[in-house]
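ESCALATION

Customer reports they have been waiting on this structure for their group meeting. Please prioritize. Original submission:
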Amino acid sequence: MSITLSVQFDTDREQRLLMPGTYTWREFEALETLLAQSPGLRITYLDGSIEIMTLGEPHELIKKSLAILLEAYFTVMEIEYIPVGSATRRGEEKGTSFEPDESYYLYVKKEQPDLAIEVILTSGNLRKIEKYRRFQIPEVWLWEDSRLQVYYLGAEGYNLVEHSQLLPKLDLDLLVRCVQIPSRLEAMKAFMKAVT
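Update from on-call: job pushed to the front of the queue and completed.
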């Protein structure tokens, strides 16, 4: 027996669906397989909860703007980096599967990326930061409400910090301002003028 799942969504805005109930890892994998036929959907699993989300153009614009500026910063500051984008982090033993919007290894490849970035345009109910803790990703940036919050992993879990611990010279206020400039060209010019 074959099941076909067809999902339509609005590409102009991000939409989230927190599935009712609690699911096993096997049920999650089955749903993940069904949704693989519907491009543009992202599925996250955490301790039996499943969230399905669409990625609209506003989400992608912010994500790519952050990535472009951050990668320019790495180049100017001569920081070796390995961009791995939204590569899936998953582990049944960790009780989670997710895709950051952007992620980077700094200097050398390790077991997990050093930095992950997540853009949140609509509130979701999954505990955003917990999934990163389970993979021991040292620093997580959350973009929400036109602000960038930086969380650094300490002995007791993540702490909200004022500045990046991995990139202490990076002016986060400048980065946020440049992401919000409508012209990508003007944003890059302003950013590069300030960091060079």
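Sent to customer with the following note: The chain has one domain: 57-195.
Escalation resolved.
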